[in-house]
Amino acid sequence: MAIIEQRTYRIKVGMVQDYLRFYHTEAFEIHCRYLGPSIGWFYTDIGGLNEIVMMWRYEDYADREARRTALYADPEWLAFIPKTRDYIEKMDNKILKPAFFSPLQ
After folding, report:
1. Distance between CA atoms of residues 15 and 71, nearest Å
2. pTM of the model
3. Is the pLDDT score of 9 beyond 90?
């Protein structure tokens, strides 16, 4: 059964669109190279504001571990990470398991 990783980043006030442009330009291709296509990227409009939510699909925990290990071995990714400190206040991560009837199996 597939698993879905949901990452939520709280971005500094007023910097959500700046972060999205920055990430898309400098890191999106690297992320996709290792993690595959994302399920989606979102930002909050109502509720807890200044949050970005991204979702990735993996076959299982071993698949996730292998892909993320490869990502963190890439010098381009390692060079990108420190640059995020100017934008991100908090990071949360969840692993979701699709219900048996979910289209995201």
Report:
1. 25
2. 0.90
3. yes
The verdict on domain 3-90 having CATH code 3.30.70.100 is yes
DSSP string, the chain: --EEEEEEEEEPTT-HHHHHHHHHHHTHHHHHHHH-S-SEEEE-SSSS-SEEEEEEEESSHHHHHHHHHHHTT-HHHHHHGGGGGGTEEEEEEEEE---TT-S--
Residues 61-83 pLDDT 10s: 999 999 999 999 999 999 999 99
Q: Which of 80, 96, 87 is nearest to 40 (CA)?
A: 96
* Structure confidence at residue 88 (pLDDT): 97
| 6 contacts 91 by C-beta, under 8 angstroms | no
Distances (CA, A) of 10 to 18, 88, 100: 13, 6, 31
Per-residue pLDDT at 105 exceeds 80: no
